Prior knowledge:
- The complex is a heterodimer.
- By secondary structure, chain A is mostly helical.
- Chain A has helices at 3-18, 39-53, 61-64, 68-82.
- Chain A has one domain: ACP-like (Non-ribosomal Peptide Synthetase Peptidyl Carrier Protein, Chain A, Orthogonal Bundle), CATH 1.10.1200.10.
- The termini of chain A are close together.
- The model of chain A has no long low-confidence stretch (mean pLDDT 89).
- By secondary structure, chain B is α/β, with parallel strands linked by helices.
- Chain B has three domains: 65-266, Rossmann fold, CATH 3.40.50; 273-419, HAD superfamily/HAD-like (Rossmann fold, 3-Layer(aba) Sandwich); 462-626, 3-Layer(aba) Sandwich (Aminopeptidase), CATH 3.40.630.30.
- In chain B, the strands form three sheets. Chain B has an eight-stranded mixed sheet with strand order 15-16-14-13-12-11-10-17, sandwiched between helices.
- In chain B, helix 2 (28-36) packs antiparallel against helix 3 (42-55).
- The radius of gyration of chain B is 26 Å and the shape is globular.
- In chain B, 44% of the residues are buried.
- Chains A and B meet through helix 2 of A and helix 3 and helix 12 of B.
Amino acid sequence: MTDPELYAGLNEIFRQVLDDDTIDLQPSMTADDVEGWDSMNHIFIVVEIEKRFGIKFQAAEMEELKNVGELAALVRQKSAARA
Amino acid sequence: MRGPDLHWLPTQATWSQVLGSVVPGAEAWPALCALARTRIDSLETRTLDRRRQRLVPEPPPGLAAPPIRLAILASSTVDHLLPAIRTGGMRRDLWIETHTPDYGQYTQALMDPASPLHAFGPTAVLFALDTHHLLGGIEPGGTASDVERHLAQIADDLAAQWARARRAFRCQVIQQTLLPVFEPLFGSNEHRLPGSQFWAVQQLNTMLRQRADAEGVDLLALDFAAAGDGLAAWHDPALWHRAKQEVHPSAAPFYGDLVARLLAAAMGRSAKAFVLDLDNTLWGGVIGDDGLEGVKLGQGSALGEAFVAFQRYARDLSRRGIILAVCSKNDEANALEPFEKHPEMVLKQSDIACFVANWTDKAANLRDIAATLNIGLDSLVFADDNPAERAIVRRELPMVAVPELPEDPTLWPSTLAAAGYFESLRLTREDIDRSAQYQANRQRTSMMASATDLKGYLRSLEMRALWNRFDRIGHARIVQLINKTNQFNLTTRRVTDEEIAALIEDERALTLQIRLTDTFGDNGIIAIVIGLFEPGTRDIRIDTWLMSCRVLGRQMEEETLNLVVQQARALGAERLIGVYFPTPKNGMVRDHYQRLGFIPSDDNGTRWELALNDWTPLPTAIASEAVNISRTP
């Protein structure tokens, strides 16, 4: 999975969950930079990422993420481990 | 992991594009409802709900039923379920407004008349309490009787909350059963460990069922759902720890549909008839080509057994009150042959209330079937193995429910059960007798067709109208009839259990329930009337007048009026006021009061008057008799 592929997938999920087609995720972005990315929507985003990439996050992992870049790295790492 | 999903609904490849093309206006609501009737996941459900809020912010005119206001009383997070509940309503052309008090605050909200919950004024209340909240205090180590007492206390507390909700809102109350989220400590013999949380869930769910029956509360059986799909599909401990979501977001669409079913059932919006194709639906193969010996049905092959099992499921549905009909492209003689001669047929000709086998298109035939059975097209479920036929019927008749049947007939009973088309709340004697009634009705109709002298025909039926005021024995049936009759219903006013209970006690209220019997048998309760004095007058306003369409054309309208007048005079009334509220379904009674000799008292035909001073009873061929009719005759 290339970086553009990964970000395309994440963008699609964020856009659908937050109902905002203008979202364009960058590695440095945090929840403060994306309107509507609150704790409730975060759960939906996580569930959709798990479904789409066929992975499962551990309880602690999600709490340590600081920005989109770390989220993408975690998705990449877990997808690779699965393959 | 694949969550429980709406697998009986068709997928729509262009779903997103179609959603994007919906514009505000009168067509928005039906277009969005059509999108709700597809196999959508939780994300699409949320998107659809959000779009609906934007495009149709207020209840549109012409809904199938008055808007529903549902309060969800929860002890943990349920916000993620609300879009799915509202979308479940759209699937049924129902508008559902939701309200959730802050979680954990439901008791205060119920008790405080100044709370936003009271301001919301729910027409239905769902207690969606999570298992940790209810059973967190149960611990292993006590004695069995301690645990019993503790559980009984929990059930008592819940029953008190139900009573509080009903007192405050006089509305349908729904209790969610507990999801079995705890792990066993003993194993297979967990029931031997007092205070096992795992076992306590089962015990409390059993208690809730008994209490709910006693209190007239409806259940939302999450435990059944989890047993069917596996708990992991419904509950993820990680999401519970993170967000206090007891129900997994992926299960939301199914959860929402379960809730909407219960609300629809209470309003009489569940399907009433199951229409079956024949070739490759009731048996394997084509009877016209393969012949009696060639079709696959019964022992000898797994496929043949699967068709027997499906027939058995259909027959059992008819035993609980669902009408069966056949709609098949066939020569009638061929179509009937298996019913008459195949020894493995579970369904008999006598199980089928309406048998249509011809070469006309199925949409037209389904219209005929609905007309013959005197029910709406939206009361039909049509099972056909052929995807092309299904697609045509869906396009021509979007209001008919047409499930996606998997290739393998083995899966059909579970598919139909999951779809929940026939969701019901109470079983009445009429439900059990219904198939017999429809059959007798067919004999009556064919006799009418052959009789040239209508009066002579009606006399030959030897009809007897057995009537009574509302009483406790008839209570459940009265509520059911009032809440599900759409066509012959002058006001389409719906009622709660409590309102009928109050009328039973109210001696100043005019209440009538009428049962009709004839030479072919018992038609069950076929007419309900409620009349109330208009304050400060001697006028009785007929708030509710409804009849079963099965008995149309038999002078039952006239005889009912005779009984109404008799009652009204006994109460001291001098005038009857008839009210007609038009709905999309009750056009057939537009002229009801005019036909009975009432005089219009407004310009739009909604208010009618009948002076009683020198009124004489209308002649009919029906003999009336006052009895305790709710009892088995």
